[in-house]
Write a structure and sequence with these properties.
Elements: E1 13-23, E2 28-37, E3 41-45, E4 55-60, E5 65-75, E6 78-83, E7 88-89
Length: 95
């Protein structure tokens, strides 16, 4: 697999966190794995066949935050995103 060139000024750190993409109601959420993370963006792992919009809100479950996000690139089951707004704390309900 060919690596996507680094085009960011902030280094991302490797993580393995649970995330959720919020799709416009009533569609719900899509579970994702957050593979790396920085102040300005992240690399997400999704099911390759899962359609996601170009802009969405990303919940980082462990941090209890939700952040407006936009897709910068896609490669198979990996998606690079840029945070385009301020992260807000949220209270998550356990099902």
């Amino acid at each position: 697999m060919q690596e996507v060139p680094q085009q960011r000024n902030v280094l991302r750190r490797r993580v393995l966190k649970e995330g959720k993409i919020i799709i416009n109601p009533p569609s719900g959420t899509v579970d994702v794995k957050i593979r790396d993370l920085s102040e300005t963006g992240a690399k997400l792992e999704i099911q390759a066949a899962t359609p996601i919009p170009e802009k969405f809100a990303l919940i980082i479950v462990a941090d209890g935050t939700v952040t407006p996000t936009e897709v910068m690139w896609r490669k198979g089951d990996l998606v690079g995103v840029h945070f385009c707004g301020e992260a807000k704390k949220v209270t998550l309900r356990r099902m």
